[in-house]
Amino acid sequence: MTLDELNDFTVEVPSWAYGNSGTRFKVFARPGVPRDPYEKISDAAQVHRLTGLAPRVSLHIPWDVVDDWNDLRAHAEKLGVRIGAINSNLFQEDDYRLGSLCHPDPAIRRKAVDHHLRCLDVMRQTGSTDLKIWLPDGLNYPGQDSLRGRQDRLAESLRTIYDATDDDHRILLEYKFFEPHFYSMDIPDWGTSLLHCLALGDKATVVLDTGHHAPGTNIEFIVMQLLRVNKLGAFDFNSRFYADDDLIVGSADPFQLFRIMSEIVSVGAHRPESKVNFMLDQCHNIEEKIPGQIRSVLNVEQALAKALLVDQGALATAQREGDVLGANAVLMDAYETDVRATLADRREERGLPRDPVAAFAASGYADTVAAARVGGTQAGWGA
Ligand code: LRH
Ligand code: MN
Question: Which pLDDT belongs to residue 43?
Fold first, then answer.
């Protein structure tokens, strides 16, 4: 493997990372924050302009609803990016207090299904092919509802959505072990997401959000297993110290990100033909948002570059010979290799700044938008 394998590698950035976000304690407003999807995409385009790594922007419905999807699509394409996955939102309606696709009331389930049919229509207008479904449904108290009944309702709801997809569409089904519910989540783990995807069909695959596992979970094992059955559709990359912290990917545990990318590289799943969508799902609660996104895509590229340096032949030999420390050393040698200068050289060769974060600061973009974006309502989760 050579670093030329980085040439076609891309990361998809989330529109919501450019808006205000926070915790239940505080959402900090910042000067220059976008007020609409156009301004979010303009900010996201800065990341691609300076890194060459982020040509797609995920949208979230209804946060990113506009009157004219073709106009938004043209705005993105004029800035050198395109609209990526469309995220549904089942976590901000009073009707969904006891669930959405799993709700006991068929009328509420119908409402949640119809939301996804509208998302499919958005995809037809934006040229997106990925419908990403994160199910916030769950229970807070044992006995509150039938665990099995909810699974049967979920399967029926997902079937209706799946049958409404076009041939080139994919459903990306995301799991999460807790929050916003605390006794059970209806899709708590990769196994449950996989079971539903297998029941649905080839167009349904699993999204692995790196912040959605119990502490200590061996995430690269899950990556290996999902790739083994060709059901890994996408990543939501971020990092965390405790819960779903949505921090900059690789900031809390760069070695874990390297181990994940090593599993990916070992089967060539970093290549576009694998159809694995490498997305970010992050919130920059206190740090600068655009520099935070630039740092994030660079961290993913850096982890991939180190993984590409793993001597696969030497590793296979050591593993075959039961050379425990030898095999581990092959991986650690790659991980301990400082690839930053090489990646800066690659950027320079491609007409990109050696240091995109410094280049963004020098561009004056942040001051320009802070001065221009006066009035209106800053974008956020609106929770
Ligand atoms: C849920 C989640 C999901 C998105 C949301 C922004 O925690 O990871 O992927 O809808 O964050
Ligand atoms: Mn996510």
Answer: 98
